[in-house]
Amino acid sequence: MKSLLSLLFATFLSFFSTNAQELENSLLWKISGNDLEKPSYLFGTIHITCDATLNDKVKKALDETSQVVLEIDMDDPSLQAKMISGIYMKDEKKIEDLVSKEDFEAINTLLTKHAGVSLGIVQNMKPFFLTAMLYPKLLDCQMQSFEQELIKVAQAQNEEILGLETIEDQLQVFDNIPYEDQVADLLRSAKDDLEYDRTTFATMLELYNTENITQMEVMMDDDTSKLSDHQDILLVNRNKKWISRISELSKKQATFYGVGAGHLAGENGVILLLRKAGYTVTAVK
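Structure tokens predicted for TraB/GumN family protein:
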């Protein structure tokens, strides 16, 4: 349960990006130069998928590094408790305070049908987390996760698993975005019974499988979600904070970084931000 909640949370945070700039089609990037003794690697994940098999170049990069760093430390034993404490709206807000009775019932029907839970029981949760409960329904298969596969490798190699940010950092994102904007996307999903979400995610998955990170960014930039109005909070600010953390960790030892592929491309993507910081970042073919 802890891992599922974390994955669904991270998935949404990786769905938005801005300022497309052409980069090579690759999910795996080598970080070198800037006085690094050994190169590190940056890998773009997609947090829910039908097949999370790691290919040979990713396995090789894992063999050449000595620790795995994800967006958050997903093997932290306190992670679930921290998440649960941060999923509720502040000031005793409830969904019924944000929508009409008709819209409340539409959301209730959606959650009952696809998540098996009545909105009346969970309506004090931040709307985003109700949306995240529906993510497994975007797939027509048993959900798999690249993060879980990376964790398995790290554990098998007796390597440490760390995070670029804390779960508190991620939870803060949805304290900073208005609940009204969060619930707007949930209501859209309710009104078309996930049709838009399924179509959009299927297209995103196709782009991911071709490793076309630039086109993924273009698609996300065109997204009509209300949350896309808050991309500084969702992506840009987080990416910028990660650069100093990546620099710090990479100087100590060769590190394998696994982050949502939506963080890679663009003017404020991790690849170009690392290059601006003086690193050589090259696609691994």
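The CA atoms of residues 71 and 164 lie 5 Å apart.
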